[in-house]
Design goal:
With 245 residues, this protein is α+β, with helices and mostly antiparallel strands. The protein is built from eight helices and seven strands. Strand 6 and strand 7 form a beta hairpin.
Length: 245
């Protein structure tokens, strides 16, 4: 599917996107940083007067709106993103997001794109994976999760231009979509191996261990039955080994 991206500048256009998210029941997931997001919050968040925010909408060839992405400028030429796929664009959600990120790298002074995925939200995780995002950190109770009605941990992720190019150049892309599966595990810090301390062996300890071995061998009768050479017996007429030599 060929996608087209348009920047949304007018208040009416921005309000229409908010209303569509609300009508489709997507608002709690699109604005997970707010417990009860309002139109006023959305309009303030998407205001583009200062050039610190870019609101893109994604359309198909017929002009149908499939999704939208909000990018907010951060220090070090990093842009924070929030992406929403509308129900008509669920099947091409990853394609929409990758195209939006590529648009930002082409049209804005952008070194990388970062976002926060609610830890239990498998849809957000699959989208991040399909776009080449890497995990940076876990943020305790950073996101309001509407399905549970409380705050849950968010996971900070980041994608550079190189990460995105790597994903888009794969011959067999793994497009996770919006159904089934679970969330990826968040790597734990690698434990530092305990340093092995080698204890010195004294001459007395060595002698004691050898004495114990000798006593055990004598008790088992090993010294009287096993001969590795005829030279171990004083009587030359009865020299034998286990092999009968």
């Amino acid at each position: 599917m060929k996608l087209r991206y348009r920047q949304c500048l007018g208040k009416r256009v921005r309000a229409a996107l908010f209303q569509q998210m609300e009508e489709e029941g997507l608002l709690p997931f699109a604005m997970s940083a707010w417990e009860k997001p309002t139109l006023k919050d959305w309009l303030a968040l998407t205001a583009t007067n200062s050039g610190a925010a870019v609101l893109l909408r994604c359309e198909d060839e017929a002009g149908r709106i499939l999704g939208c992405g909000l990018f907010t400028r951060r220090p070090y030429r990093v842009w924070h993103f929030d992406f929403t796929a509308f129900r008509a664009g669920f099947s091409v959600a990853a394609q929409q997001a990758r195209g939006g990120f590529a648009w930002m790298f082409r049209h804005r002074d952008c070194t990388s794109v970062m976002g926060v995925c609610p830890a239990p939200n498998r849809h957000a995780w699959r989208l991040a994976e399909a776009c080449g995002f890497r995990i940076l950190a876990r943020l305790p109770e950073a996101c309001f999760y509407a399905r549970k009605g409380n705050y849950v941990d968010g996971v900070l992720v980041l994608c550079t231009r190189e990460d995105l190019n790597t994903v888009m150049q794969r011959k067999k892309e793994v497009i996770m979509g919006f159904g089934g599966g679970g969330t990826p595990s968040i790597p734990e810090p690698t434990p530092v191996p305990k340093q092995e301390v080698q204890k010195p062996v004294t001459e007395a300890a060595t002698a004691a261990r050898q004495n114990q071995r000798d006593k055990a061998a004598k008790a088992a009768g090993i010294g009287r039955s096993i001969y590795t050479s005829p030279l171990n017996r004083a009587d030359g007429n009865t020299r034998k080994t286990l092999l009968g030599q």
